[in-house]
Design a protein that fits this description.
Elements: E1 6-16, E2 21-31, H1 37-50, E3 56-57, E4 69-72, E5 78-84, H2 89-98, E6 99-106, H3 111-123, E7 128-132, H4 135-142, E8 148-156, E9 159-163, E10 168-171, E11 174-176
Parallel strand pairs: 1-8, 5-6, 6-7
Antiparallel strand pairs: 1-2, 3-4, 4-5, 7-11, 8-9, 9-10
Helix pairs in contact: 1-4
Length: 179
């Protein structure tokens, strides 16, 4: 019998001063049995950073043909393909051929090694940006989550500030460029 995902409910007050985006979000996140809490937090942070009409979580880990998040145009075209983790170059090349914009949010301790080995090849792909969340910052954000959570998320100057009423932390996404 297959294990079922763990469901998380997040009520988020988003204040993104950088993009003049102020939203009250009610999100349901399904955490796949093989997904770490840190990876789920990276998906949630990517959602907050890119919040726009039509942005949605996909089946993600359980599906090879979909990213973790995406935005479709009104005509069904993929506007933005968003991956979390360390996707391989062939997957990203395919994504760049299907979407107008591709973003990767890497978050693990091994991200510097992954980027050192793959950065030149991945960084040469068109319409692609790769961002890094520091591992210790992701761990601190993950420690703030319960299955039901209320978060205030503020984005100012590229920095993400999180507050759940009893704890707060910050995460600073860094744009990775090929060496």
């Amino acid at each position: 019998m297959a294990l079922k995902p763990t469901i998380y409910k997040a009520q988020i007050e988003l204040a993104d001063s950088d993009r003049n985006c102020f939203e009250s979000l009610s999100l349901t996140l399904a955490r796949h049995p093989s997904e770490t809490l840190e990876r789920m937090v990276a998906r949630l942070l990517a959602y907050c950073l890119l919040c726009t009409r039509g942005l949605e979580f996909t089946k993600g880990i359980s599906t090879a043909d979909e990213p973790d998040l995406w935005v479709h145009s009104d005509h069904g075209d993929i506007e933005h393909w968003i991956e979390v983790g360390h996707p391989e170059q062939p997957r990203l090349r395919k994504a760049c051929g299907r979407a107008r914009q591709v973003s990767v949010y890497a978050f693990a301790k091994s991200t510097p090694t992954w980027w050192k080995l793959n950065g030149a090849e991945i960084g040469a792909l068109p319409r692609l940006q790769v961002w890094q969340f520091e591992w210790d910052e992701i761990q601190a954000a993950a420690a703030m989550l319960d299955r039901t959570v209320q978060l205030n998320v503020s984005i100012v100057g590229g920095m993400i500030y999180l507050d759940n009423g009893s704890a707060s932390t910050s995460v600073e996404p860094k744009l990775l460029t090929p060496s």
